[in-house]
Design brief:
The chain has 9 helices and 5 strands. It is an alpha/beta fold and 257 residues long. 24% of the residues are buried.
């Protein structure tokens, strides 16, 4: 038998209850006894190791089917257990109702101890399997909660990072005005003037008397030297650079820009 789960035997006939408790104790089971449904409910709540309930069908206050139903209603979502009903006067409707209540076995009185003990062994095996499923589901739920929490933290951190990046992007033109000027040649400065105006490579080539491929080469070199990612951002950064370059007389043909 399993050493972690116990039996609860519920019978209002004191002699029968004592006999069953003694029999199962001799077989090595841990047993608890109750003489009514209310006593059984309190005992089940108090003893978390109870995995199998053996209950008489006729009990004062509530029958065995009602007891099993109440136990499942209170504890079935978080605690695995199996139920066995016994009775000396069971009718067909009682057996059908027992099956609907999730009762795993039904034994008539007078009881056959060995047959009942075999039923308990089977019930314990089912209860253990169910308990393992409950435990696995609990672990999965806990892991999902942890993953969800971490994803929320990552999402929050990502939002904060994105806000900081956006803020830096907004401040980029102003910051460029304070930074050291890029080391451009006079011709590159001229090309940058036209980029600032929003002209295409073809238009710049026509204005400066250069080939379009030469202009493309200058644009590529300017992007590399300034470490700017694209032509649009370069046009935004050009104003503060060009003002300072004009002041320092770095521009020739564009000196008046």
């Amino acid at each position: 038998m399993d050493g972690t789960m116990a039996l609860m035997i519920v019978d209002d006939e004191v002699d029968t209850l004592d006999e069953l408790l003694e029999f199962f104790a001799e077989q090595g089971y841990r047993c608890f006894g109750a003489a009514s449904a209310e006593e059984a409910l309190a005992l089940f709540e108090r003893e978390p190791d109870i995995g199998v309930v053996i209950a008489d069908l006729r009990l004062p206050g509530a029958d065995g089917n009602a007891l099993v139903a109440r136990l499942r209603q209170r504890h079935g979502h978080r605690r695995a257990f199996e139920a066995i009903l016994v009775s000396a006067h069971a009718e067909r409707g009682d057996v059908v109702e027992a099956m609907r209540s999730g009762v795993g076995d039904f034994h008539g009185k007078p009881l056959v101890p060995d047959a009942l003990e075999a039923a308990v062994r089977r019930a314990l095996a089912r209860a253990l399997e169910a308990a393992e499923r409950h435990a696995f589901a609990g672990r999965v739920e806990a892991q999902l909660a942890t993953v969800t929490h971490r994803l929320e933290q990552l999402s929050s951190a990502f939002d904060g990072l994105r806000e900081r990046i956006d803020a830096r992007s907004d401040d980029a033109p102003a910051a460029a005005g304070d930074a050291a000027l890029p080391a451009l040649t006079p011709r590159m400065w001229e090309v940058l003037v036209h980029i600032r105006r929003g002209k295409t490579n073809y238009q710049i080539a026509c204005d400066l008397g250069l080939s379009e491929n030469t202009v493309k080469l200058y644009v590529s070199q300017i992007l590399q030297i300034t470490r700017v990612g694209n032509r649009t951002q370069l046009a935004l950064l050009a104003d503060p650079w060009l003002r300072r370059a004009g002041t320092l007389e770095l521009l020739k043909s564009a000196a008046g820009e």
